[in-house]
Amino acid sequence: MQLLLLPLLVAAAVGLARAAATDDPFLSGAPGNHSYNIDCGGAADFVSVFGRRWLADQFFSAGGQAGMVAEPHRFPQPQERTLRFFPPSSAGKSSCYSLPLPPGRYYLRLFSVYDNYDSKLRTPSFDVSAAATLVLSFRSPWPEPASRYGAYSDLIFPSATSPTSDICFYSLSTDAPVVASIEVAPVHPLAYDGATTGADLILVNYGRLTCGNNLFGPGFTNDSDAFSRVWQSDIDFRNNDLNYDAITAGGRKIFGSNQPPNYFPTKLYTSAITTGGDASNEIEYLMPVDTRMSYMVWLHFAEIDAGIGSAGQRVFDVMLAGKNVTRIDIFKQVGGFTAFKWTYIVENLTSSTMSVKLVPVVGRPILCGLENYAMVPLETRTVPNQVAAMKALKDSLKIPARMGWNGDPCAPRTWDAWEGVTCLRKDKGLVITQLDLASQGLKGYITDEISHLTDLVSLNLSYNSLTGSLPPGLGQPSLATLDLSSNQFTGGIPGTIGSSKLQTALLNNNQLDGQVPERLYSIGVHGGVIDLSGNKGLCGVPTLPACALFWEKGGLNRTGKIALGASLGFVLLVTLIVVYILCIRRGPYDYDFEFPQDLTSISAISAKRNRYQRAKSVMLAEMEAHGPDGYYTNGGAH
């Protein structure tokens, strides 16, 4: 699939003008309506002369290196001068921009440029994907205008169901993919026949033309377009063997434009081309196509000739790829000075050029604009919860950037899965069946999120420097081969490991301890392969030491827990008896045995003193009741 250059807008043809584009969805910026203008390789955010806020790409990019075009003075806009490139030796075969986009449909525009930024005088070959689907292919050598001045490409795509959508770049051979800017904004969910195509198709622009007018669109001129589409001049796509005349609306108002869901701009319908010379002449455009795909063609008309005032005065046939598909009478459909849109899907093409021809029936044909979109089916993606599990493993295992673990683990299928990953297509989507990451210098740990890889058959993480305990999530029923040998795992072996399908378990040369689960050891008994050597703390099965009386699987066994519980109960009972004797059964006159005051706390001394004072008061009361002669006295009489 080579989608490069002919359908793209070459930046050298773009003129700059200050814009007051109130309909530009990019103007609200991120994250107000989930639109983003990303300056790839840029060092800081800035606001352009068109009022757009451009963001440095450091929070969106997975790595790569920043660069600058060789001749920045030839690029009028700042975001066209900087770039980011992704050497496969350090960034891996795939590198992605992750954009926070909720589910919906989005317009995406990329600017790619080479301009000998690396002084190698060779344009790179690489592919681009959106929504895990291959959408653009750049092949060296690029045509000179695109290589020197850069080129824009755009498409409409549905976002993934996850919180982010990835725009990914895939290196061919040793070439470094390169990108200068990325723009994304939401579009109406029903735009471009979204009711039938929105959920399953990406529409890649193979030509969006304004007839009889110069290039216009937000970000490039002061003309607005609600989707920020750029409309190219049609001159380069005409069959130049024919004669054409341009006409305009002469300032008359155009009705029916800029309406949902497509919001086609009014300016598109204020100019048109018609045939020149003989009235029997035709209008013909030659559009580049890929014969492996189908195309959605949109034709735009408006009867802007005041001399046409009734139906039947201008009638023509539309022929696509040599097939007569419809007959059009604009005035009969909508009247004068009113926008009229017509669309058709072309299939089974046999040539790399598709003819779009208007053949006169009555009068001369007229055309205001033309759009041609490749209909790229969405590729099957990895099951979402397995994508999340793989991203968690990427973080916990500390996968190095050179392995290119970016984007969807298994898609697009044109490219291999992530390095060390094997996938399989099932009814629910793509699933991960094997992980082989032996001898990759990994220094992290295994997250329990691995339990979501419910189709995993083989896991090999041997000969790394992984640490931590083995998670219970390693007990997938699907797992047949487990090799965690020659790492630094510690703790016990979870009892979940050892499904009926597990035939090989290599846990040797780690730092595991505790009793080996019987279900795991039974693998070797039933003809499988198990190796637990090199773990000095393991016990409880033949060829290993017996476990301590109260010890099992790195902790107390059932007997040990019962013994510990009984001991704690005995200590509690003794404590309660002592408290009862010392605090509850003592009378008010019990003698206190005290430590010397210099060995007691202030609070203890105070408590003893208070108790002594109560005893002294009783004694004084009894003495005062007797006279000096030993008899009781009565009142104060003497």
Task: Describe this structure as you would to a colleague.
- Residues 1-7, 12-32 and 589-638 have low confidence and may be disordered.
- Strands 1, 2, 3, 4, 8, 11, 14, 15, 16, 20, 23 and 26 form a 12-stranded mixed β-sheet that branches. Strands 27-28-29-30-32-34 form a 6-stranded mixed β-sheet, with helices on one face.
- The termini are far apart.
- By secondary structure, the protein is an alpha+beta fold.
- It folds into 3 domains: 36-187, Sandwich (Jelly Rolls); 207-377, Jelly Rolls, CATH 2.60.120; 384-539, Alpha-Beta Horseshoe (Leucine-rich repeat, LRR (right-handed beta-alpha superhelix)), CATH 3.80.10.
Brief summary:
This protein is of the alpha+beta class and 638 residues long. It holds the Pfam family LRR_1.
Topology:
Elements lengths: L8 E2 L25 E4 L6 E2 L5 E4 L8 E4 L13 E4 L2 H4 L2 E7 L4 E8 L13 E5 L2 E6 L5 H6 L1 E8 L5 E8 L6 E2 L1 E6 L7 H4 L3 E10 L21 E2 L10 E5 L22 E5 L7 E6 L5 E8 L13 E6 L2 E6 L1 H5 L5 E7 L6 E10 L3 E2 L1 E9 L6 H13 L24 E6 L2 E8 L21 E3 L20 E3 L6 E2 L12 E3 L4 E5 L2 H8 L3 E3 L5 E3 L11 E2 L2 E2 L1 H27 L17 H23 L14
Parallel strand pairs: 2-4, 15-16, 28-29, 29-30, 30-32, 31-33, 32-34, 33-35
Antiparallel strand pairs: 1-11, 2-14, 3-4, 5-6, 6-13, 7-12, 8-11, 8-14, 9-10, 9-12, 11-15, 15-26, 17-18, 18-25, 19-24, 20-23, 20-26, 21-22, 21-24, 27-28, 36-37
Keywords: Membrane, Signal, Transmembrane, Transmembrane helix
InterPro entries: Leu-rich_rpt, LRR_dom_sf, Malectin-like_Carb-bd_dom
Membrane topology: Single-pass membrane protein
